[in-house]
Amino acid sequence: MDNGRVKRLRMYYNGEPYAILELEDTRRLQSFDVGILGFNDDSMPDWTLKFEILDVYPGDKFADTVITELFFDGKRGH
Fold it and tell me: From 18's CA, which of 5, 34, 48, 51 has a CA 20 to 30 Å away?
């Protein structure tokens, strides 16, 4: 593959480290169960997710690393 791909991704929830996601070197969809985050009620403040690339699979042609899509799904809305 031309570009680098993410191998390990650290996920932060409200600024705190929450999980490290280990990705396979594939173009297939990969999913991770990270538990229930945030709530859909007025008593909870807004919350944030941040992702940090920790390690990559090197590209064959380019040195950059590409994330093409992040998709969130859940029972309580998204």
Answer: 5
